[in-house]
Amino acid sequence: MIKRIGNRTLEFTNQPTVRAYASVAGKKESEGPLGGLFDKIITDSYDGLDTYEDAESQLQTEAMALALKKGKLKKSDIDFVFAGDLLNQCVGSSFGLKDYNIPYLGQYGACSTMAQNIIAASVFVESGAAENAGCSTSSHFCSAERQYRYPLEYGAIRTPTAQWTVTGAGCCIIGNGECKVKISRATVGKIIDLGITDANNMGAAMAPAAAETIAAFFKDTDSSPSDFDCIFTGDLGEVGSNSLYELLQREGIDIKNNHRDCGLMIFERRFQDVHAGGSGCGCCASVLCSKILNDLEHGKLKNILFIATGALLSATTAGQSKTIPSIAHLVNLQS
Amino acid sequence: MIKRIGNRTLEFTNQPTVRAYASVAGKKESEGPLGGLFDKIITDSYDGLDTYEDAESQLQTEAMALALKKGKLKKSDIDFVFAGDLLNQCVGSSFGLKDYNIPYLGQYGACSTMAQNIIAASVFVESGAAENAGCSTSSHFCSAERQYRYPLEYGAIRTPTAQWTVTGAGCCIIGNGECKVKISRATVGKIIDLGITDANNMGAAMAPAAAETIAAFFKDTDSSPSDFDCIFTGDLGEVGSNSLYELLQREGIDIKNNHRDCGLMIFERRFQDVHAGGSGCGCCASVLCSKILNDLEHGKLKNILFIATGALLSATTAGQSKTIPSIAHLVNLQS
User: Fold this and answer.
1) Looking at the predicted complex, does its ipTM rise above 0.95?
2) Does A88 sit within 8 Å of B314, measured CB to CB?
3) Checking DSSP bridges between strand A80-85 and strand A104-106, what pairing results, if any?
4) Mean pLDDT on A233-247
5) Do A255 and A248 contact (CB within 8 A), yes or no?
6) Model-level pTM greater than 0.80?
7) Helix A113-127 to helix B113-127 angle, to the nearest 10 degrees?
8) Using CB atoms, which residue from A91, A105, A190 is nearest to B116?
9) Which of the ends of chain B has fewer CB neighbours closer than 10 A, N or C?
10) B333 close to B288: Cβ distance less than 8 angstroms
11) Which CA distances in Å does A284 have to A79, A149, A322, B132, B226?
């Protein structure tokens, strides 16, 4: 059963476990600091297929195949898959996972999708609805640029606050087997909208959502940043991370000393031209399903927070000069 | 706790209840057979706002407000809201619900979203994660036409198999209070893709998914169509309903005598020019949150199946001549 603690944090009394995980990433990501940790690298943006969208779908197909293999699981062992992505109507997920024949629950949380998947999967496992549930998401630089900004052929100039969409996917399997990494608590985000309208500065739009969720978790659980080895955010990048510090400081919370942002971990910005850092559903998903879960599995990390943030806009709302509502979901992982 | 019965059907042992529900619909829908049952009608496609997208968001804002009011609930009574829609990046839901300040889990199931919401909400309630959870979705004829087909100003001709996107929203609150209508069982759909590529014939694309889920439910629960007062499908329309009968007949299942499709219920096709019937997330959501839940609440129906179907394509995949993967989720409601 699940206990509600404080105002809205969930505590998993049986603690679902991460039975397996895998990541797939693109060439640029392979050249970053985590390059050696991804399970598979695709060097061709098309991944041998006809379109960038096909390539993105295949990232999810492959991440799921690798996770199943690494976990010695069959696809029939997985009761549900929770998945979503940034492509319109989440076609990266539906096309990428359709041949697995697993009951499918499409999620939409923009770049917060991986944390949302894990929360939903953990609730399903804890409730008895699932024995094992898959969590999958992806992003692809080329399909995202085409859909959200400009076709690459235009050679459009990017602003300094812009982030670079990660080509990558992550998949993890949540279950109740005996495994080292456990999901102990989670806080579901609220939609936060402070009126930011600059679609080239997602970090600033998403930071208030991250701050709200993190503050809620600390309050609900009566804990503080020093209780955790590390607080990982999804893809705030440099601008968003700085906003986050400032917003949390106003609440008397200082996370600077043990915070890392997946968008800043995946690229080496001194050498890689990614402006404010990496972004996209695949950013924190591929970092979680490589570096973070590796370190938890091997005891380098014992107790962490994983907060994935998402900007809930569309190209239509951006064109209509709407604000950017954002959200952040938090998962507490322990080993 | 939740029991898994048969291969993949979920049985809710505590049976979450429908604590409240409300529907909002457009002018054309108000002129159909269910017109008198909707809680609110909007007669202006813009609903007094600047864009069709704003109007669609407001449908969800209003449906949620009405459901809370009818259920004598405050927004702070709702622990989570599950919502999604057909607009790119589900902005109908995120903009429509952002001011409620309720932890938000965005769902994407295309027109199957309402059933998916109810399943997720029921699992959250049954597990103890939520006391009350909201389920919300919408569609709007004008925003859907612009995004998926042509701007209305073009006056494009529609094919006879095309369906008419319903302008409407439905919201229901799932909880564990003492209420008449209970959620007893549910079957989550798999992604089914039989290779149909005609984006103007969604009924045909979605029927195989409905058939697969319905057959799985009957097998898992050892039940048959005659055990239920009515089997409601989401928005298969005329073409899809006929395909469904044929596909199920091959499995020895005959649902013809007690089947109704929300896409055929919401419009009177003899007088209303909607071709093969209504469609959109708001179609079955508004029919469920008016006629169906009314009839369950007042004892006219005792035991029904609600199967919402979704086509998991995008305008991009349609333009790339891809097939249309589809899905159908089933909920068994009893009173």
Assistant:
1) yes
2) yes
3) parallel
4) 96
5) yes
6) yes
7) 60
8) A105
9) N
10) no
11) 24, 21, 26, 30, 49
